Amino acid sequence: MRGCLELAGRQLSYVDFGGPGRPLVALHGHFCEGRTFAHLARELAPDWRVIAPDQRGHGRSDRPTLPGAEKPDYSRSGYVEDAAAVLDQLGLGGAVVLGHSLGGVNAYQLAARHPHLVSALVIEDIGAVVDDDLSFCLVWPRRAPTRAALIERLGDAARYLTDSIREFADGWGLAFRPTDMVASQRQLVGDHWDDWLATDCPALLVRGTLSDTLDAEHAKQMAARRRNTQLVELPAGHTVHQGDPTGFALAVGEFLSSL
Q1: Which helix (H) or strand (E) holds 11?
Q2: Domain 2-131+177-257 has CATH 3.40.50.1820
Q3: Residues annotated as region Disordered (predicted)?
């Protein structure tokens, strides 16, 4: 089911995969949207009900523009307060929160700043220190005449962007602005150790062994320094839930069964 919340005049869309189970809120990474967790939701049902927002500026959610502001708001506090609003307005306080990449930092910062809203964390392939740059996406085409043409022009990146491809009045394009993704990533870069260590609720850290974002030593430090944290490594790249969907669902399911 597709739903929508109004946050300070903006529309924030979300996918509620439904069912009678306990709530799990899933926060996607840059370039993605809530439906990227469809496979996980199927695998966790009926014990878990996955609710996956399209985060600000992604998917069907509005860009976070403010009256009189020159640039959209992709601040850390903006993302975190959006996630808190989803939990509050849907009555999901005390949920498990899962996050991939951008969504992973959003998840553990949400726990740090609103601990009453989060009972456990699943963090997918992102560290306590972030220093990646997304400027490579600025060369992606704004529009193409057909879906096939867009996929061809996107090259190898197309396989990670399938859910975000849309048909617009002036052709085929992506459901986000690359310039926004670069701006958002710049706000994400930094040392977030204090936020990662601020809580001790149960946490699962999932790393892809082929990841170019989270290296093995950093992941081990994250698990060692934070109480109640398990580390699982799976044979995949940065987007573990797509690279090894079966292994990811099994690892998450085992963790959830322990709560």
Answers
A1: strand 10-16
A2: yes
A3: 52-73
